[in-house]
Specification:
By secondary structure, this protein is an alpha+beta fold. It has a single domain, classed as Sandwich (Jelly Rolls). The protein is built from eight helices and 15 strands.
């Protein structure tokens, strides 16, 4: 297993203040990264540190609660997308048709902060616009969560403008697909492992993400997140101080006709010699275009005379199908 010693870091603030010519040059760098692994760190992102710290500390305080207290905000039935999801209730590898024991993690999940006017689709209302089951404790959790969600929704739009530039599209090309996104925020806790895992059981099974992009806030100094490199080896993704880790999802790969890659990744267990004492936390924002957005292979990603690999799909139903494959 290799470590990514030269993990790419992109300066978003530099891009946003650059000349048109410089933006194109920076876009070409992002295009190269997204063709290779689709993983990069973004620094100078503009999300206030106070917003990040508040969301992180409230998530940690929630996971520190007794199990019975956390269960008070559990998802009410199998397949419900939001609220608390307890340990060993999800197996992400199933999304790639690999049967494994359930993942050694727990999570709290929340969806869009508002339902846009005019949304009538019953599937949309029952799935991505379902009510988040908020916990009563810790105090201030809901406010910190909503502030972080709103900041990450804005950040995702700005990154999508980088992506548009990288694909030789107008910078605001994707904006029309993102005026009512159906993104989800997930706080994850990987508890200390006091019992040996089952064979093949890890913290998060090998999977790809489903949407346009993911914005990950890793725990400083944490280990365990690994990606498959173009050569087929597992490589550790290092947490970069002050930066988010960004990766391409399946929908974005589809949108680009696989010009960009949605890379398989996983979270492995702490070393056995350390006795499983390495608790790990992260927060992942899964960005997804509007429910009704029609995702058609971009003409900019087709060579002359080339036929798209994929038929058009609607963003929401596509996401719902992916989600249902991973819950027990």
């Amino acid at each position: 297993m290799n470590s990514m010693q030269t993990f790419p870091v992109f300066d978003l603030g530099q891009f946003e203040t650059a000349s048109a010519a410089r933006k194109k040059a920076l876009g070409r760098e992002v295009d190269h990264i997204c063709r290779s692994t689709g993983f990069l760190a973004v620094k100078n992102h503009g999300v206030p540190q106070a917003v990040i710290d508040a969301a992180w500390s409230k998530a940690k305080a929630f996971f520190d609660l007794p199990p019975a207290e956390k269960q008070r905000s559990k998802a009410p039935y199998k397949g419900y997308p939001y609220g608390y999801l307890g340990p060993e209730l999800e197996a992400l590898a199933k999304s790639h048709n690999v049967d494994t024991p359930p993942d050694l993690k727990e999570s709290f999940n929340g969806g869009p902060l508002r339902v846009p006017p005019g949304i009538k689709d019953p599937e949309a209302l029952a799935f991505c616009y379902a009510e988040t089951i908020w916990p009563a404790e810790p105090e201030g959790f809901v406010e910190a969560w909503k502030a972080y969600y709103a900041a990450l929704e804005d950040l995702a739009l700005r990154i999508m403008r980088v992506f548009a530039t990288a694909l030789d599209l107008p910078e605001t090309y994707f904006d029309a697909f993102l005026d009512a996104p159906i993104s989800a925020l997930r706080a994850l806790n990987y508890p200390e492992q006091h019992v040996a895992p089952k064979p093949g059981q890890i913290r998060a099974g090998a999977h790809t993400d489903y949407g346009s992009l993911t914005i990950l806030l890793p725990q400083p100094g944490s280990r365990g997140l690994q990606i498959v490199t173009p050569s087929g080896e597992w490589a550790e993704v290092p947490p970069i101080p002050g930066a988010f880790v960004i990766n391409i999802g399946d929908l974005m790969a589809r949108w680009t006709n696989d010009r960009w890659v949605s890379t398989v990744h996983r979270v492995v267990n702490p070393p056995a010699e350390e006795g499983g004492k390495d608790r790990r936390q992260s927060m992942a924002f899964f960005h997804q275009p509007n429910w009704d957005a029609e995702i058609t292979v971009l003409g900019a990603c087709l060579r002359e005379g080339e036929t798209p690999k994929y038929e058009p799909v609607r963003s929401g139903p596509y996401l719902m199908g992916k989600f249902k494959a991973t819950t027990k």
